[in-house]
Write a structure and sequence with these properties.
Blueprint (H helix, E strand, L loop, with lengths): L4 E10 L2 E11 L4 E5 L6 H8 L7 E6 L2 E2 L4 H6 L1 E4 L11 H11 L4 H14 L15 H13 L5 E5 L7 H16 L3 E6 L2 H7 L2 E6 L2 E6 L1 H8 L2 E6 L6 H11 L5 E7 L5 E6 L5 H11 L6 E5 L3 H9 L3 H11 L2 H9 L1
Helix pairs in contact: 3-4, 8-11
Length: 339
Amino acid sequence: MAPAVFIQNLQKRYGDVEAVKDISFKVEPGEIFGLLGPNGAGKTTTIRCLCTLSTPDAGKLEVSGISVIDNPRAARRRLGYVAQEVALDKVLTGRELLQLQAALYHLPSAFAKERVNIMLSVLGLQEYADKKTGTYSGGLRKRLDLAAGLLHQPDVLVLDEPTVGLDIESRFVVWDFLRQLREAGTTVVITSHYLEEIDALADRVAIIDKGVVIAEGTPSQLKDQVGGDRITLRIREFSPLEEAEQAKELLQTLPFVQEVIINGAQGNSLNLVVKPQSDGLSCVQQSLREAGLPIFGLAQSRPSLDDVYLAATGKTLMDAELAAAGSRDPKAERKQAMR
């Protein structure tokens, strides 16, 4: 059986900006596959190329064995796409919007009527179906957008940051619905920079940074690869690099410490990968105290996907988000979105 999604050596440039350098991954039928990374990593560009909304400069893209580049019309029939920004006509009711979507897909009238009623039902929209979408809350708007993306029964549903801006309750509604889709056999590709979202939903995940895949596997596999527990240490709220280096050199001599990373973006805090040990924190405290080094903060936890990203890049996802926000050019982004 062909992969539900196959992407090999994808490259895409916008002028001088290399949005995607070289991305490859495949998604098996009936799984939820997560693309995790900070804003600007290349996630949206990747799925826009997959969904025929942008032409790649190089690479191979297939949906259910159909080339997205050579046969885009056939590929679109097998794809459902829900963008990050919900775009609904506020003067239409939910039912009218879905009927319009069905007409755009050239669905037979009887089948279209049945599908509209089914999608309104499974997404809990019957009560609001005949109300104008301009009166909908953010959660209802997102559910209606999901209904539009699934109306034609696609093999693959592609979601770009599906829960951005939603409250906790609405996010959980979307999560539960995506799990139901997977159980029914629909393949879901989801981009997100929410660690807990990908960890909770994805069967497998690819972590993207600066236009390349830096890690791929199940969430458990990726966390196991970085090994051990994590200890986060702050000597001071903002430590001098020399002091952080001194602490790193000291802590690396402890037999249960496997790796020490200095996180410059967070005040030169130290992130330790350690073998599980009941007295690990007390040993760290004692070593620092004997060396005359202070402790501003100290905590131990199990590995997370953020630890995977940190091990690969030397910074956390939050650090990458802040760096991307600081270097963002709104004018360039608007030009890129219009292409």
